Amino acid sequence: MDFQHRAGGKTGTGGVASASESNRDRRERLRQLALETIDLNKDPYFMRNHLGSYECKLCLTLHNNEGSYLAHTQGKKHQANLARRAAKEAKEAPPQPAPEKARVDIKKFVKIGRPGYKVTKQRDPENGQQSLLFQIDYPEIVDIITPRHRFMAAYEQKVEPPDRKWQYLLFAAEPYETIAFKVPSREVDKDCKKIWTHWNKETKQFFLQFAFKLDPKVMLPPPPTPQPAAPPSAPHLPPPPRMAPPPRMHMPHLMPHRMPGGMPGGPPMPRMPPMPPAPPPMSAPRISQEQPGPPKAPPPPPVPPPAPQMPNPRPASSVAPIAPPPPPPPS
Description:
This protein has about 325 residues and is an alpha+beta fold. The protein is built from three helices and twelve strands. β1 (about 45-50) and β2 (about 55) form a beta hairpin.
């Protein structure tokens, strides 16, 4: 028989398998798979009758061997009957009560008002990092209660319109009301050295400190270091006004009188003494910075010397003539 020229055949092979051969091969593979995954001893629908064959109690089918039954369990009919049976049992089964959840007793307290608080703004002198310190007073807190806190986003609260620029810091302790602080919505530094809490049971005070992370874009310069105080200095006084020079005296009667013939006559004019130099401007006294002391009053300005009195010689022309004696009365 020529197998080389058959449709779909290849040299060295047995030719194309028929449909029955393909089904037989498929059932064998399913049987091998079922043997690995299914235990017939635990299957409630597997039964061996008195004739030596096998039956499926769910589908009411007969099988000559175990392999045929295992192949049947992987088929569509058996799987559909399994789903139908499971739905029917779930519908007919009585409703079972749900398991009870663990109940937590809610502690109820009568609110007595808001606690006292104190907020301190801080700044690291080394790098300029900003931080906040909160001090909350709970003088009448319940002994078994420890104050708690948490950060809340602006979109979690319903009291104010949400604003992404702010966040809220909440403090709660019974029987006091829960209070919240509105702080900038900046990232909080999670370092254990930057954020810490402390509950003082003796003074009934709760402390919380946290710092904002440094943003290189908006980093502020550190505050200037304080300079040592300079010693007090004397008040700056304006220099005293300069004394105006005395006016130049104009004495026309001291000028020489020219006699006829062009020769001057009369006594010579005396020479004016030289004017004293103007006093130097006054300046504030200097105080040594090594030994600061109380300011000293500036010395009084010097008194200028009095102007010299010039002699007032009377010229010959200004001498009054001697009046002649009166004439004798007529006899």
